[in-house]
Design goal:
Blueprint lengths: L1 H17 L11 H19 L9 H23 L4 H15 L5 H25 L7 E8 L8 E4 L8 E5 L2 E9 L3 E6 L2 E3 L3 E13 L6 E6 L13 E3 L13 E4 L3 E2 L7 E10 L4 E15 L3 E3 L16 H4 L1
Antiparallel strand pairs: 1-13, 2-5, 3-4, 4-13, 5-12, 6-12, 6-14, 7-10, 7-11, 7-13, 8-9, 8-12
Helix pairs in contact: 1-3, 2-3, 2-5, 3-4, 4-5
Length: 323
Amino acid sequence: MKNNFLILMILVFFNSCSDGGVETISKPLGPEVSALHADINQLEVGLADSLFMTNSTKDEVALIKTYLTQARILTTRLNSIPNDGMAAKELFLVLKKIEGFPFSARDEGLFENMVFRLRITLSKFADIQNLDLAGIEWSLLKFGFQGKLSPFKAIKLFNESPIWQYGTFKADTYAKAESRGVKANAWLFSPIYDLKGSKKHQLLVKHIVRNPEWENFKLKISTDYDGADPEAATWTELVVKPSRGVSPNQWTTLVTNPIDLSAYTGKKVIFAFQFLATEKSNSVWEILNLEIKGTGNSISSEELQVTYEPAPSDPPANEEENN
């Protein structure tokens, strides 16, 4: 495998240098590639010191080291010759292999930042080449909560309601909403995702539930939410309820069935997780990550500016009597 890759890289270099149709542009993505290489270097040091992938076999570790080396070589090549379509397609295959690698949950989290940078860097080179990445389906966006809710935004619709919080347990990190006998109407908004450069979108959400009230666990999508009152926007509810039931008083990890987003191709969208509860509720909802698969280039995002503030609570009916 390594010999085949080295032969391929030699051919790429000679073919590109001898082909008058390949235009050389001097380092158009220098900072992005440097940041990616810094992530790769950090992972290589960790692998050399056996700081992670401790439960993987020697062959698996060697394979990941090979993928990291390939990613560095190919991005260096593309940074010198951005129109090298062969290198872009090879880098795409390397990314697919890393994304499909059977990491443990902890190791996947450690590689997540590098994979994200690699995906975005590849997407930018594909844009330079006007390349649709051969129409191959892949992960266009994958977001998990690492240390904070941001760039997601949380609000509550009245002051007494609980609000979405960042949480962590062992290797899991998540956004969490819960109600233990407290009425709730809490919203968690994604950034604004632009679906114009890709197609065949499917959304998957990985989440953990305990005593779920599925009619009160709502995943919604909007094209017109502006950060003000969410109830004034147009929302379409998406299905998060699994086809099978879950046991009461147990923590259950689920992944939604792929949710078709083809109706939103070419549009900018916002996802919202709405958590509702009554005084009788004892439910918990934890969002681990969301992923959008499809064809084309990576999905870009921009921050959502939320301006909504919950209305002041009504005073008790007997307030004057108490005074």
